[in-house]
Specification:
The chain is mainly α. It has 16 helices and no strands.
Length: about 400
């Protein structure tokens, strides 16, 4: 690459927008509802819509990548995120349409980013995965912290416009990267595709199916934790402010894991990977079990969210890193990532909703938390099945 710093900057900025563009608005959902004259209950779907769009659009990524090339597909995805983000401030109906567009763009980015690293930095996959996952974790936490102050000082619309400016910067850096570092001619695109297998069939692969279920469990438990840990904590006696602290800790404490784990996974053999990740997943499991305590105080919840942050982030990073290091080329990576995220987000989309329905009916979180614990045990079993001294498609 002629200007490697442009590619690196693009990866960093992608990390900024990959999660914060759809996780920030729920923090100020009361303000959004008030400005449009809607009950808060009608806006609860804003959390589910991105997950559904992830499930719908992820499987189409491989087609568009082969048809138009990875770089152009990623650029269109960024433009969808930018346009959708700007639409959200216009009206109540545009809020939902914009959220769908943001989700569809992020769906493509989720799938393409691991494949992009395989193509441009095949010898530094761990380092670059660490770069964007750390940025994503850090900026998600920062935007959750600054969302309310910005909304109070200006408006929630200004908060969304601020996010949109960052998306615009990603578009600019990616266009420059394409112009300077990438040969986007038809001949080059055809040549690069010809060097890959004609077809990849993840839906016929038992290991890919296992990755799909693992992705579903990881996403379901993560998004359910984000949505319901503050509420559960308040039911045990914490104030709203304290519950905000514990959810912030959950995001921030995951930063060390996102910085170190990808590089370790890239260097480690499959036995080292499975042993380390079993330990991290057990830490995640312990945190979920600790949620059974109905008399928990602030310190207890800080420990719970610290364990979720460390273990859960390690599991997330394991999944996104595996899409790259457990495949042989960008086509395999995007195919595996697309399949796993399709099923994974489809499973995850209903999890927070189901947790809430049971919470309302039972006035308890015991049953739902038990299901989450069992799901994590299943994850561990599937991980031992998937990890071997070969790639997914060998």
């Amino acid at each position: 690459m002629k200007k490697k710093w442009l590619f690196t900057l693009s990866i960093v900025l992608l990390g900024v927008v990959m999660r914060s563009t759809f996780t920030t608005i729920p923090v100020v959902i009361d303000n959004v509802a008030h400005s449009f004259g809607l009950p808060v209950s009608q806006l609860g779907i804003l959390t589910t819509l991105p997950l559904l769009t992830f499930a719908i659009f992820s499987p189409t990524t491989s087609y568009f990548t082969r048809r138009f090339g990875m770089e152009k597909t990623l650029l269109v995805a960024l433009l969808l995120v930018l346009f959708g983000s700007l639409l959200r401030v216009a009206s109540a109906s545009m809020l939902f349409i914009g959220t769908i567009l943001v989700g569809s763009g992020i769906a493509f980015i989720n799938v393409l980013l691991p494949a992009t690293l395989v193509k441009f930095t095949p010898n530094k996959i761990g380092a670059y995965t660490s770069l964007y996952s750390t940025t994503m974790t850090l900026m998600t936490a920062i935007f959750q912290i600054i969302a309310v102050p910005i909304t109070k000082a200006f408006s929630w619309q200004m908060l969304v416009l601020f996010l949109s400016v960052i998306v615009f910067l990603v578009v600019v850096t990616w266009v420059l990267h394409m112009a300077i570092n990438v040969d986007t001619s038809v001949n080059q695109r055809v040549h690069s595709v010809d060097n890959m297998p004609d077809q990849v069939h993840p839906w016929r692969n038992k290991y890919a199916w296992a990755m799909l279920v693992m992705a579903g469990i990881q996403s379901a438990v993560f998004y359910t934790s984000i949505a319901w840990v503050p509420t559960v904590a308040q039911h045990t006696g914490l104030t709203a402010t304290q519950s905000g602290w514990v959810i912030g800790v959950m995001s921030l404490i995951g930063i060390p894991a996102s910085m170190w784990v990808p590089s370790f996974l890239e260097r480690a053999n499959y036995k080292q990977r499975v042993r380390f990740m079993t330990g991290a997943t057990v830490l995640w499991l312990i945190a979920i079990i600790m949620m059974y305590n109905t008399q928990a105080g602030l310190v207890w919840w800080l420990i719970v969210t610290s364990f979720i942050g460390l273990g859960g982030t390690a599991v997330f990073v394991y999944m996104v890193t595996s899409y790259a290091i457990r495949t042989r080329n960008p086509l395999e990576s995007s195919a595996l990532s697309g399949m796993a995220q399709t099923g994974g987000y489809l499973i995850a989309a209903g999890a927070p909703w189901a947790y809430g329905v049971l919470f309302a009916q039972l006035d308890s979180w015991f049953l739902q938390t038990t299901v989450m614990a069992i799901a994590i045990l299943i994850f561990i079993g599937l991980m031992w099945f998937v990890e071997r001294d070969q790639t997914i498609f060998e």
